[in-house]
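tool_call: predict_structure(chain=1)
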Amino acid sequence: MQIFPVQKTYNKAKDKWQKSPAVPKGVSWNEYQASDDEINSALNIGIVIPDGVVIIDLDTDKGVSCADVEAVLGVALDWDSAQLQQTVSGGMHYAFSLPLGVEVRQGSNLLDCVGFDTRTAGKG
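tool_result:
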């Protein structure tokens, strides 16, 4: 599993704070392997998402719930069987496996559901 440190930077054009990989210049974040010291001292870390996995990120601080996501998707998900990780901001990351050949749209506030984000293979 490839892990990399993440930093928060201010994007003046968008007038908001954003997360970005904190890796040495000239090094690809998705090929970088952080040292134990970097992982232990980082405020945030990223993990390269492997093929066949989608991460559903629920920003619960924005009020979104599992039921909200199921409503916009029109399908029930097995939340209890998903791998789960709480985020620094109190949200939740759920990891689901995907059948081969199935692609999932990546983005934030998907389907006009504020706080429903996804990340897919090759992303962090």
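agent: Residues 66-73 form the longest helix (8 residues). Proceeding to next step.
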